[in-house]
Amino acid sequence: MATLSLSCFDLSSFSRSENRRRHLHRFWGQQKSEPSWALRRRNVVGVKSFRAFYGGASRFNDNKEKGLICTADELHYVSVPNSVWKLALWRYLPSLRAPSRNHPLLLLSGIGSNALGYDLSPESSFARYMSNHGYDTWILEVRGLGLSTDRGEMKYTEQIRSEALSKQPLVKASTYDSSVGSGISSRDGQTSNIATQLRQWNKNLINIIDGAQQLSPFQPFNLQGVTSALEEFQEQLDVYEKYDWDFDNYLEEDMPAAMEYIRNQSKPNDGKLLAIGHSMGGILLYAMISCCSSKKVDPQLASVVTLASSLDYRPSNSSLRLLLPLKDPAQNFNVPVIPIGPLLVIAHPLASRPPYVLAWLKGQISADDMLHPTLLEKLVMNGFGSVPAKVLVQLSSVFEEGGLRDRSGTFKYKDYLRQGNVPILALAGDQDLICPPEAVYETVKEIPRQLVSYKVLGKPGGPHYAHYDIVGSRLASSEVYPLITDFLNRHDTV
């Protein structure tokens, strides 16, 4: 195999001046001999960290190393002020062949989701699509998910990253780090009652899965991925004791830190960003617009696209109601996290193999024939982490009168949407069981009509769109992405 000499330039230090264009032209000339895929994927960052695992990832690694691969062009870290957290930002540099854009693009994932959903494979990558259309594209992994980490463990992570990179001679990786924020916390290493309870809960789950073997005697489960996810969950229990945040922490701390960092890197002339949010990511964008409207401040968003998102789920028969019974146990027993990733890994064999005890689970994610089984398995086994119970408790207010509230219960985020001035495109899936069109419209109708565009994807005779299909299904690049780029292009003005 030929060795590629791949160069990496930090384009963020160059404004949209003629000087930057000359630099890009010089850079392009240096790369002419390289295949086009090398230009799109110059940097691959490998990270091994118990703090940042993708549930069950080792199932796809024959050597059983629990490694992570960042497939973006650059991996950036931004510190959250007055917090121990460093947030991961996956950056996809704009194609040099595409028109120059005025604003960078921020992508926000759903609850418990890492960056993988936006970059599931080279053939199914929303992030790559947007960067190929000229957008400086960033995916934010909020605290506790994906490659985000706390600074108390960064030294360990950096050591492992260096070891991983030494095993990847064909690429040159670039990782960027901010120096904002302080306040590293320490722990005494003793095992708390919470961790003890979670360990017992974890053992019980393993026993349940062992018993599930008997459900399908003719096609026994391959438990390697399941047990691996549970073992990794077990290894992180002491860390989970620090999972003490809610939705408002994402909104008031993580998002502002990430947006400020992106502005400093991309330097848009008007200081604004474009943003796309899927599920909880869209809820965050709605909430930010509402909060800024109530305070009469500019949210610094040129336009927004929400995918399967709503602040008020009451008119719908959303399957999220199934999570409501978890609310009281989370409060009463002070369980710090809900392990969404490990639970999905456990449920996947029961959903995808005879006797299909949990066949309904697949429909929560993707409609029939919309996502290749291999990609669906990759998403389920690798795309989710654990979520603090406080986040779940606060989000459950979407089923209460007035919709989502802040942590105090006094501020209803939906109330100030009508005072916003940000153009919004809201997309819904016709077979979305998690956020049905009725829920999406319940929020859309609160937005001034001149600012909002609303569309339900899917046709009576098919194809149909479930919750994830809007982001990465086989038809998304031809039916969904063009709608989004057309909308963003119209509002990418200064």
UniProtKB/TrEMBL annotation:
The keyword Hydrolase applies. Gene3D superfamilies: alpha/beta hydrolase (3.40.50.1820). InterPro entries: AB_hydrolase_fold, Pept_S9_AS, UCP031088_abhydr. Keywords: Hydrolase. It comes from the Eukaryota. The keyword Hydrolase applies. This is AB hydrolase-1 domain-containing protein. It comes from Citrullus colocynthis.
